[in-house]
Amino acid sequence: MGSKVVGLKSLRDLIWTPTLFFINEKDSKLVVSTRDNIYIQIDPDGNVYYALRLQLVLSCPMNLKHYPFDKQSCRIRVSSWSYDMNALILRWHDECVTFLESVELPEHFLDKDDVICKAFNLTYETSGHFSGLVAHLRFRREIPYYLMEVYLPISLLVIGSWLSFWLDVYAVPARTALGITTILTIITSSRGIKESIPRASIYSYITWKTNSKFHQLFRQ
């Protein structure tokens, strides 16, 4: 038995490799430090280990109805490009997706223990049947930021507007100034919130909440 063979891009050009592509890809590029990050290992028993580092931008349709208390499921879909199922069948390894311990997202929590991996088939009328793989990643939006930056300030403004109930009924200038100041502050805060949230055609929870607080001011 001989020893294993290890090489980089030059070795890849000498052996057969599958032509794969990401179905929901929007942009991608090969990670390059000093050289292309490609690794090839051929074991004595004929098994080939092929690895490369890619930076991907993938599309992920989201339902923002409950934003920012929403949970999203994004998919990573990969399939064969030129070899149909007669020549290539894709299967997941025992551990389909692995994560670095240091991976953290600023606005979302990624449930690393709730990853669903499946295989599927793609059928094209002109070219036939192709094998594919999909991994479902589940995300939950982090709430503390929105509680401190959105809900708490607006709630304090509404509570502050209740001071008008303790003012003398004949103190019209003071009551008017307090009401107008609160309304203008709510309008300014709402504009800042709308600029920071994702644009969607649906009526999200955070929009309903800010509008309801604004309605409470007019009821007073």
UniProtKB/TrEMBL annotation:
Residues 150-202 form the Neurotransmitter-gated ion-channel transmembrane domain. It is a multi-pass membrane protein. The chain crosses the membrane at residues 145-163, 169-189. Gene3D superfamilies: Neurotransmitter-gated ion-channel ligand-binding domain, Neurotransmitter-gated ion-channel transmembrane domain. It holds the Pfam family Neur_chan_memb. InterPro entries: GABAA/Glycine_rcpt, Neur_chan_lig-bd, Neur_chan_lig-bd_sf, Neur_channel, Neuro-gated_channel_TM_sf, Neuro_actylchol_rec, Neurotrans-gated_channel_TM, Neurotransmitter_ion_chnl_CS. Its main location: membrane. GO terms for cellular component: plasma membrane. Keywords: Cell membrane, Ion channel, Ion transport, Membrane, Receptor, Signal, Transmembrane, Transmembrane helix, Transport. Residues 12-142 form the Neurotransmitter-gated ion-channel ligand-binding domain. GO terms for molecular function: chloride channel activity; extracellular ligand-gated monoatomic ion channel activity; ligand-gated monoatomic anion channel activity; transmembrane signaling receptor activity. It is found in: Cell membrane; Membrane. Belongs to the ligand-gated ion channel (TC 1.A.9) family. This is Glycine receptor subunit alpha-3. It comes from Araneus ventricosus. The gene is Glra3_4.
